[in-house]
Protein 1
Amino acid sequence: MKKSKIWAALGLAMAGLLAGQADAKEWKTVRIGMDASYAPFESVDSKGEIVGFEVDYAKALCAKMKVTCTFQNQDWDGVIPALLGDKFDVIFSSMNITKARAEKVLFSDFYYATPPAFITTKGNKSDDISPAALKGKTIGTQSSTIHVNYLEKFYKDSEIKTYPTQDEANLDLANGRLDYVTADSIVLQEFVNTKGKDSTRFVALYARVPEIHGPGVGAAFRPSDTDLKDMFNKAIAEADADGTFKTLEKPYFSFDIRGK
Amino acid sequence: MLQTLQSLAGFVVNIPILQEYGYRILLGIRMTLIVVSLSCTLGFVLGYFICLARMSRFRILSGFALAYITFFRGTPLLCQLYIVYYGSGDLRPQLQDLGLWTFFRDAFFCCILTFTMNTSAYQAEIFRGAIQSVSRGQSEAAKALGLNRIQTAGLVVMPQALLIALRPFGNELIGMIKASALAAIVTLLDLMGQTRFVFARTFDFSVYLYAALIYLTMVEIIRRIWDKLELRLSRHIRPRFEVLAKEEAKAITIETSMPST
């Protein structure tokens, strides 16, 4: 008799626990993970804080969702494992929506789309970026990005080098170890205008290839957090409608990057 | 439950990944073996000379060797690699003038250089420890027999010292195999580099598991080779009865395994 009562109590407790788990979690704070080596979208300033367009934009979205947001710096290669491992709740780090990634994470609607580009050294006068022209040349980019996939697919006769961060690829171009670097055009333009002023120059933009580059950049969530995704989608739509996006992008970009 | 087990099994034995990227992993193993064997061999030679410098009576020479050893043993290998790789990039104009840039431009050579310098510092200390642990009486006896310094070193001290140093050298080799994974950070496609590449393509953790198992296999093979090597090379100093007992045991097993008539 007594035993069965204990079992019943335990059973109730278990049921309660399970029910609690099944209930939608109330989002009060959202931890945002980004790889802060991608200025002007996100980078670490001299005070050690993460700053950039995506930080401002994420803060605006968080205000609309009425949640507190915290920001964490995470190396790009580990950004999806860290999300899945519950180190933070959303990747908000210029992550292009691709098929391979969508098998692991849940994407929001895209919130910006910019063309990729090539940059090269000052000494290189050629503006031809066709695979034939870049045959035998060394091209660098950040590992685990769509740009690697693009190079692997179209630049088979070039040597491809991948780096943990975009900063290191840019640095090796400035150092002369690479002949070209490809990445997002805005990030490369920023580098060419600032740190790479004396040694590098912008070559050309190229069109996004839909099956490689996807529709654009989205926030990424754990597959189970559909409620958080819906919250972000709603906030993204709101930020479009009330002009928040346009206001925020002004200080950073000379043209509209929304791509819609 | 069954499904969980199935997905776990699929995680451990991921055939599609092995099919598509197995060749890349093999290339990575090759690169790791090249990097480790090259830098350990060069480090062995360099380490010997550094050890000689360290034990030299010339203050400046031994002081320099001590500084070298202290620096390379006292700082992280990753930091040394960055200094060589990105530091040389910063010094490109000067290196170009010296005609050395073609060497430093290549991540492979930067890795070999850094790993060689790092392991030579450790190997120099292994050498020194081993040489100093050969009892003084040995070189005194050699002197009494009229052997000159080179003969003493080559015929008496070194053979004994190398036997003492064998185990620590094996440990250093194993250490280098594991440390060589750092080469992946500066774009070299060694085993770790290829693993990272495959992971970036598939987002599948099992590739890291494979890499770990391959590293473990390499380390285990070396450990076993070293066991055999030590057993073989130390026959003459092991107590006689131990060797005899082994042979006897062998004889008995052969006898017992023979079919009785």
Protein 2
Amino acid sequence: MKLKWKLLIAAVITLFIALNITLIFTSEKEINRVNYISKWTVANEQDLIETLPVAGMFMPKEEQFFYHDQDKGSFQGFLVEKGQAVEPGTAVLEYSPQNINETKSAFQMEIDRLNQEVASLDQHISQMEQLLATSNTMPASSTGTSQNQQLQTPNDDSIIVQVEPFDSTAYIQQSIARDIENKELDKSKLESEIEKYEEMLTAADSSMIELTAESMISGTVKELKHTLENPILTIISNEQKIEGELTEDEVQQILPGMKVLITYENSNKQLEGTIDTVSVYPEETPEIGKENSYLYTVQLTEPEDGTSVFGQHVNVKIVTNEVQGATTVPVKTIKHTDKKQVSYILGAGGYVERRQLDTGMKLDHTVEVQKGVEAGELIVLDRPLLIKSNHPFITPLSPTKNTKASYGAMSGMEIFKTISKGFLSR
Amino acid sequence: MSERVPLFRGLKQPQFVAYQLGKEEEVVGLWKPVVWITLASIIIAGISAFFGIGSEYVSRSLPDLTRSGYEAYQTLFAAGQVTWGLIWILLAIFIPSLFFWTILEVDYRKLLFVQLIITMIFLIEKLVFIPVHLFLGISAESNIFSLGIIAQTFTSIELIIFLLANITLFKVWAIILTYKYYRHLSERSPRFIIWTLIGFYLFVAVISSLLSYIKFENII
């Protein structure tokens, strides 16, 4: 065939094919298409837990400090040893009562003295009262009846003054009464002072009862200072908490109340706890250029059974985000278009369906789907370039996924039917 | 030609081979090519079935079956497709040659030889269709080598679409090539040859599209 003809034929054929291809994409009527799906997965239902791993240590939950209190008396001695176990109520320190006894006798002397003064006042008062009583029985002596007298003022005015006769008995009675009143006043002052000293006495008495200091917690004596430097005794509780440090970035994500999972060596148990406190200021004074660390503490849900020691390093996982029973799909299956998130499902009838999704929490390569896909639905993992929804799909054979059991499950008739269907579908 | 049957040459240099064929008294050694071509057809059918081409029927049950159940189903289906690949090529080799033997008065073996060359074209067509199918995401009725797409743009009648999709570039090539050979081999007029060829293939196309239309897989 001449070259010219050959070229012409080649050109026509190419044009024809090109026309067909163009029509596939631009035709208004949907051309029958088929989606070739080689990989797909299923939407799972699972719990998504996002954790932040940090380091921590077992620390005593509480510490009780004891200080030297001069007012309690002089320090007698320690009643426990370092490392000794104590319970609430166990006496740990002793004070001698010497000081207190001295104080008490001083108070008592004051009280006695005051009582004496009160007694003498009482005597005086009763004497006065007697006097008052006898003056009442004396006859009234008067110097006569009232008279009018005329007096001259410097202004040469004259006034008339009425003069009462002088009653000496009444005068004496009044001055005695006044005296009694004063003495009674003094007496009550003294009595209140006595009260005061008596109160101080009972106070001193009660401090005698506090001669021993007791432990309030169940724990161990951590240290005692024979130098009597405060705190002179420290007790650490048996109950533990977890303590650790967070970096600046970490501390912003952690809030009190968050759940915590703890694992440590020598045990394959996993403990649970919650974040108790998160420090808002760093452990050391912040400086430009220096990394800050913030203290956090964890309250254990159940007390630890004793395979751990204080200071033991633990691995702490703080649950920063959690969704229970979430429908999840791999992140790869989601296509992002125009602010929408879309995924393709292998649906009933052998058609590919396009679904729009509302997503939630993301964790590694998995994301929670709140709307759009149900758990158990099949999702296209390996999207063909030209995937089209509402068109059928085909899958390649995966010989490795064949199992003898599935063939056994099919009856001979079914097997024959299936083969014939393949045969006839050409 | 006592040496191996020059099938490929017959494709590329039909003039030469046709001429040679015309001169020959007898053609021997056809069984080997028949076996090769049959094997090739089985392999190509296997590849096609492996990719799931034509298995839309099976895909429908994917959501309902377990993975292994689905795979078993599809494998059996593929076995059926491969079996068809075997049967079909034998039909394509022997039936047309038989038909034309009755009307052309040419030695049957020679016709067989020609037909073997022609079936290679059909195998090429099937082979090419595999990547096209997968990459463009098109199905048999939207074959870019056929009139199927054009048919879909102006009609929705399935039968017509199937029919036109059957008319492919490769078939045209096959008809032209067959015509070239038959002209050398037969004394009949060229017009006769052409029209019977076209008629024959059209007839086959109609039967084929009817079968596609009936969708036997739904009936069984």
